[in-house]
Design goal:
The structure is a single chain. The protein is α/β, with parallel strands linked by helices and 272 residues long. The chain has a single domain, classed as 3-Layer(aba) Sandwich (Rossmann fold). Helices cover 47% and strands 14% of the residues. It has a seven-stranded parallel sheet, sandwiched between helices. The longest helix has 22 residues. The radius of gyration is 18 Å and the shape is globular. The chain starts with 10 loop residues before the first strand and ends with a helix.
């Protein structure tokens, strides 16, 4: 993906930005010249990503390890980013947890874990970042999922949590717009070589089925999602607020379809 955006002089914070799609988003902003800060639970991943951000061209790169389930740790980490880099022009909230499990077989604690990471983690990030967002001009991007609006077997926990994330997006678009802050959600499609795709389509057969279902005929690339984030964070999207936008090659127009049924069938077969 060529650089069509210039983020020199801007500060970008990517929560969950040390792996998969979120790391790709952080690197895209680095290539566009931004100061980029990343956070995740793994210090090793943080250190590796900071090195790669510098190589990619970030004006400044830093990172911290903290758990989005811990409100004070999130607040302290974001305060440290602000102390070093100044007001946040772009905030990407991307921490997520997922595993396929049928509701009847899932423990309450397992369900709660996903809600705490995806939903409460989003609450902690939004509240922790709020004092440090540039006014006017800040752009917030939540990384959502199709489970927010499509029911999938074996995904009740994720469906509930991500629906909450998108409603936070819509609500904060109303509450924070008068301060000059925009917020939108992006919904990645099936992105090749990511942990999320491997969890829901773990076999070559399943992945082939997904690919044949995508109207554009290919799996997505991390750059497809990163490009959408660059656009939403740019002045070109200055009147885009409170939207949930998919980068999916048209896949979700078909609903959860065969993939949702396949997940459920696989989980039921595993019980036998």
């Amino acid at each position: 993906m060529g650089n069509r955006f210039d983020f020199k002089g801007r500060t970008v914070v990517v929560i969950g930005g040390t792996s998969g799609i979120n790391r790709g988003i952080a690197l895209a902003f680095a290539r566009a010249g931004a100061q980029v800060a990343v956070a995740s639970r793994s210090q090793d991943k943080v250190d590796d990503t900071v090195t790669e951000l510098a190589r990619a061209g970030a004006a400044q790169a830093m990172g911290l390890a903290f758990d989005v389930r811990q409100a004070q740790a999130v607040a302290d980490g974001l305060a440290a980013f602000h102390s070093e880099m100044g007001d946040f022009d772009v905030l990407v909230s991307g921490a997520a947890g997922n595993f396929p499990a049928l509701m009847a077989e899932m423990s309450v604690n397992a369900f709660r874990t996903v809600v705490e990471i995806d939903l409460m983690g989003t609450v902690h990030v939004m509240k922790g970042a709020y004092p440090f967002l540039r006014r006017p001009g800040a752009s917030i991007i939540s990384v959502s999922a199709p489970q927010a609006f499509l029911p999938y077997e074996g995904q009740a926990h994720v469906c509930a949590a991500k629906a909450g994330v998108d409603m936070i997006t819509r609500t904060l678009a109303l509450e924070w717009a008068p301060e000059g802050i925009r917020i939108n959600s992006v919904v990645p499609g099936y992105i090749a070589d990511t942990e999320g795709a491997r969890r829901l389509a773990p076999t070559e057969q399943a992945l082939d089925m997904v690919q044949r279902t995508i109207p554009q005929g290919r799996l997505g690339a991390v750059g497809d999602v990163a490009g959408l984030c660059l656009f939403l964070a740019s002045d070109l999207a200055g009147y885009v607020n409170g939207q949930v936008i998919s980068a999916d090659g048209g896949l979700y127009q078909r609903g959860s379809g065969q993939l949702g049924q396949m997940i459920g069938n696989a989980l039921r077969a595993g019980k036998g």
